[in-house]
Design brief:
By secondary structure, this protein is an all-alpha fold. It has 4 helices and no strands. α2 packs antiparallel against α3.
Amino acid sequence: MKWPWKKKTLSFEEAAKFNWELDTNAELRNKLDELAKQYSTLSEKEYQRKLLLLFRKNGLVIDANQLDMLLLLRHKTDQMLLRQKVKSDEETV
């Protein structure tokens, strides 16, 4: 039985695909840039809807909560990699 209050979890494959698409799909990045330019003219709900649609068109079917989680994970990963790079740079000096 599926419980309505249970959140759908993200698989490793979904997270990897999300990051892969953001890192390698030039067309997606261009469309995300175009959408970002429209941000001030759209409601938050409309912006989010268009954002999710872009990802769906690229094979990633996620909801708004999952998108928030993926973006948070990506942000945290970037922070960790930056700290690691700074530490590595300091050791080589």
